[in-house]
Amino acid sequence: MPGLTSASGVLGFLSDEEPELKVFALQTLNDDIDTLWTEVAGSVGQIEALYEDESFPERQLASLVLAKVYYHLQEYNESMTFALGAGDLFKLDKQGEFEETIISRCVDTYISVSAARHAGPQEKAGHTALPTLATSFANGAGEANATAALTSPTTPFSQSTLPSKSLLSRASTNTMLEPTAQEGKTGSSLTPNRATQAALELVIERLFEGCLREGRYRQVVGIAVEARNLEVLRRVIKRASDDEKKASGKQVEGSAGPTEELMEYVLDICMGIVQERGLRTQILKLILDLLSDIPTPDYFSIAKCVVYLNQDEEASTMLKKLVSNDDQTSAAIAYQIAFDLYDNGTQEFLARVIKSLPAKVQEESAEKENPTETDQLLGELNDRAGAPAPSSENVSDEHFEVFDRIRKILDGSETIKLNLEFLYRNNHTDLSILNKVKDSLEGRNSIFHTAVTFCNAFMNQGTTNDKFFRDNLEWLGKAVNWSKFSATAALGVIHRGNLTQCRKLLEPYLPRRSSLGGSIFSQGGALYAYGLIYANHGAEALDYLKEQFNDAQEEVIQHGGALGLGIAGMATGSEQIYESLKNVLYTDSALNGEAVGVSMGLIMLGTGNIKALEDMITYAHDTQHEKIVRGLAVGMALIMYGRQEGADELIEGLLNDPDPTLRYGGIMTVALAYCGTGSNKAVRKLLHVAVSDVNDDVRRIAVMSLGFILFRKPGSVPRMVELLSESYNPHVRYGAAMALGISCAGTGLDEAIDLLEPMIKDPTDFVRQGALISLAMIMVQQNEAMNPKVASIRKTLKKIVGDRHEDAMTKFGCALALGIIDAGGRNCTIGLQTQTGNLNMAGIVGMAVFIQYWYWFPFTHFLSLSFTPTSMIGLDHDLEIPNFKFHSATRPSLFDYPPEQEVKTDEAPTLIATAVLSTTAQAKRRAQKKERAQRRESMDIDQTPTTPKINAPVSDKMEVDEESKDKEAKADEKKDGAEGDKDASAAEIAKKKLEKEKVGYDIENMSRVLPAQLKFISFPAGRYKPVKKPTGGVILLIDTQPAEEKVLIEEKLKKASTEKAAAPTTLEDMRNESFNLRRQADAQGEASGAAAAAGVLTAVDEDEEDGEEAECPKEFEYFSDNEDED
Fold first, then answer.
1. What count of other Cβ atoms lies within 10 Å of the Cβ of residue 538?
2. Is 582:618 a contact under the CB 8 Å cutoff?
3. Are 633 and 620 within 8 A, CB to CB?
4. How far is Cα 110 from Cα 209, in angstroms, rounded to an integer?
5. Out of 83, 238, 702, 917, which residue is the most buried by the measure of CB atoms under 10 Å away?
6. Which residues, including other chains, have CB under 8 Å from residue 389's CB and lie 6 or more apart?
7. Residue 630 pLDDT level (bands cut at 50, 70, 90)
8. Is 234 exposed, middle or buried (0-12, 13-18, 19+ CB in 10 A)?
9. Is the dihedral of CA 538, 542, 544, 545 positive or negative?
10. What does 382-398 look like in DSSP terms, one character per residue?
């Protein structure tokens, strides 16, 4: 039947008294509504009257017609309301534009209504859970805050925000609020009546049921999370579990079931997309409750949840349950969980788990007789946390052995030992690059000496290779004052994790009570190094460091001791250490005040300790020293690490402070409280301050902090900072460069490199410095196969460091860059998140303190905390390293180490070529031309072979010379005019070589595996199989043939011995010791670099009256576009 061309006749039936005619009219109009809606729109009132008439038999049909008319009129809310009134006549499974639009509108409305309904209780709970600061800016709406807002150069956050695009990124209603945005949103949104809401629920239920029936669980999960409806989320996960039980026979062995995959998906969106801490906590609690009901619980997901929720009881219960199963697989899973807990948990959390594990009674009593600092610290933590005492009843000796191993893993000693062994045996440091940096930078200039020290420390981080110090004792002797402090601390970076040899290595440098200890700078640096070796694993070292810190009288030694205490005692929350630091802070010394302020933050890292914050804020307002205020500002930010909405009150207070240094701390608090969340709220705040604050330091850190917020979404950062990288203000440009480096570290992202390359030629020296450091961060562990630009960037770095006309600031950044790009013997990347996807606390803190090098160079060593070994280490159930191979489904060169730099043989000084006059050269050319002409003539005349003449060798020689000259000329032309072509051809050759290679190769256990390579790694069927999907780092293996003898990998580090240097007592002895050690090192080449350097670094600096002093850096100038035009 052909469609109607006009609706006028049919519309007339709507006025008829017979209901059958009205129904006929509605059916006819419904069939052709897409062509007739313009005419029907005029009769909407009549159709609405039919819909509202309860006696009319086809009310739902009238409602459907109305829905389609309003849809064409683009009144989607009214259309949705009438479509819901149509009941079953509205077909959800029909494929059409109308149906898709209305379903989309239904889902959006359901999400907004459900989220508003479920948000109320969470907000109230949030208000009661958050303590308030009893400080000068505690009154949120009081006069003090209003006055601060007026005097502040920044606009309050609530007046500058825009509504967010996603419901997941809505601001919570705590202190860092967006009242204007929230009110506007709720006022404009449609609030359906009860009947419509009931119909909406039915439609959504039908949608959900359809999805669940087809196994599309993820779609329902997404809607449930965005709608904050945890009941639906619970139902979906249970349904998936039930479906898995029914289909258990059909499931392929070894593959992940639908429930396990769904759990991983929920965890991923919970950690990566949900931005509100309260909602995330509720979802994780729900997952924890549900995991026990699943037939095969995913213990690794549970571990992820308990770390985030800080539920140590759950963790210890899970470990005890696995050990009690008494089989090899369960033990291996328990070990793997312990490794994951160590990677993701704080020292305080791990101490509580360790305390709750069963231990032998004899050991406990022996320990109580001679309590160590470890026990005191653990006792303090557990007393505060109220952890239950472990019971050792009904535990066999075998189980005790397993628990002892778990304890070793949880306290970090096992992971640290394995990483140290990996870095030692796979060290690929290219010493020729390091020597080039040293030769290019004058050692007498302290900034250059320090730059080489940092470059050496980063290149050899964790490798224990201090050969560079041993080979360059004369250069090392040029270090004075703080350069000596940094050089001694570099030993801590190089030997990071070398716990067994720590005391032996640093003995000559550490402070002594009895005899003369040498330079106070080397003593302070040694305490800093001690902390770096025990970084985030300080229970064994804290007692010694605390004692040295309390005994120190010299400010420099206190400075180093404070930094060492902070790094080693990170996140322990120890009140005792905090009080010691606070007592030194109150002496009001600018020299050690900055280090003490940062260390107070490190000890209380992430605790949100209100008392500590009040002390720090009060003292920051009282003191006159800017260095102390800055240290306290960074310390307060560290205390609020990961607190999200809990930090909002502190953020508002700091950002409204007239002191720019405290505003700087406010921005750092935003960066650390919201790190890795991708929070729209935090990003808007930072961008606003970046363009509105009057202080350059605050604007710089605001742009830089974008990198901390968005490092989980590195692709979004280049677009965000593109305009800021072209700002007239060099501080903003520097911030943009560093933001790219922080967020895109180790990714080799092309968009970031394209933005940074022009900044290498920026007119301001410190912008060039930031661009070089960021390029190195992004290019770490990249080779030419992964990113063709890496060769040209390395070439640029070597060129800049050797350029005599380059500024000192830029050269300093270049030296750092050369160290970072080859970090840890080319076996480390910069990791701000762990292999399992959680935040890497030590890495983020290291990066946050590293960027303070702008004010104080010794903070540069903190970057080493961000270096993460990219290893694959397989362990069996006895925690031994079996000799086996795993498979990588790629070409070998794709993830290979970059080639070592070729040392040119002609670099030594050569004789200068004799100058040749142009007239002489012309005469030679004429003679050669004449000779060739004669030869050609003779060849034309006499074709028969003749005996060679006496001058024939000379003519041959001339021909060879001519050929070589032609070749040289061509080479020069290529060099001058076609460098780009050369690079392109090199890239093409590399590409062809890559294509020829065979795909797939085997890798030995304990080898380097890059994060990008993990997806290509597989374990071939054989003796060992992993307990979980490989994520890098330590992987526990299940031995399928335990009866057979196993072949283990020999640990090379155990063979290496560390030579202990004797402690010199007088200045003369020190010099003699230095001379003897240097002679031994030159003769044997076997002495440890730390031992060899001891005599040089511990020598007291003598101030000579006529001694030459290093030149002071010149003041930098601002260059803007306007000035260039002038």
1. 32
2. no
3. yes
4. 16
5. 702
6. 355
7. very high
8. middle
9. positive
10. HHHHTPPPPP-TT--HH
Cβ(566)–Cβ(603) under 8 Å?
A: yes
CA distance 451 to 788: 28
Maximum Cα–Cα distance for the chain, whole Å?
A: 131
Amino acid, single-letter form, for residue 1111: E
Task: Retrieve residue 964's tokens.
Answer: 């070589």
Count other Cβ atoms within 10 Å, centred on residue 811.
Answer: 27
Tokens encoding 22: 């009205």
Which of these, 77, 44, 76, lies nearest to 63 by C-alpha position? Answer: 44
Taking the C-alpha atoms of residue 544 and residue 114, their distance in angstroms, rounded to an integer, is 56
**Is pLDDT at 850 greater than 50 in this prediction?**
yes
| pLDDT: which is higher, 131 or 508 | 508
Residue 55 corresponds to which amino acid? S
Rounded CA-CA distance 951/947 in Å is 12
Of residues 310, 314, 316, the one with CA closest to residue 348: 310
**Mapping DSSP to helix (H, G, I), strand (E, B) and coil, where does residue 441 land?**
coil
Q: Are 210 and 92 in contact (CB under 8 A)?
A: yes
Q: Which residues of 301-312 are buried (b: 16+ CB within 10 A; e: fewer)?
A: bbbbbbbbbbbb
At 127, the pLDDT band (50, 70, 90 cuts) reads: very low
SS3 at position 284: helix
Sheet holding 1033-1039, edge to edge: 1007-1008, 871-875, 1033-1039, 1024-1026
Strand pairing partners for 1004? 885
pLDDT band at residue 69 under the 50/70/90 scheme: confident
Question: What is the edge-to-edge ordering of all strands in the sheet holding 1001-1004?
Answer: 1001-1004, 885-888, 1017-1018
Q: How far apart are CA 1056 and CA 464, in angstroms?
A: 10
Most confident of 291-305, 708-722, 1012-1026: 708-722
Q: How far apart are CA 653 and CA 149, in angstroms?
A: 9
Burial (0-12, 13-18, 19+ Cβ within 10 Å), 610: middle
Q: What is the C-alpha to C-alpha distance for residues 544 and 547, in angstroms, rounded to an integer?
A: 5
Spatial distance between the Cα atoms of 296 and 146, rounded to a whole number of angstroms? 57
Helix (H) or strand (E) holding 1004: strand 1001-1004
3-state secondary structure of 26: helix
Of 495, 553, 487, the residue nearest 522 (C-alpha): 487
Separation of alpha carbons 1018 and 1009, rounded Å: 12
Mean pLDDT in residue range 1054-1074 = 43
pLDDT in the model for residue 37: 75
Q: What is the rounded distance in angstroms from the CA atom of residue 966 to the CA atom of residue 356?
A: 81
Nearest-10 crossing angle of helices 76-85, 97-129: 100
Residue tagged 């012309």 (tokens): 922
DSSP code for 130: S
Number of H helices, E strands in the chain: 53, 9
Contact between 706 and 683 (Cβ < 8 Å): yes
3-state secondary structure of 1039: strand
Confidence at residue 632, expressed as pLDDT on a 0 to 100 scale: 92
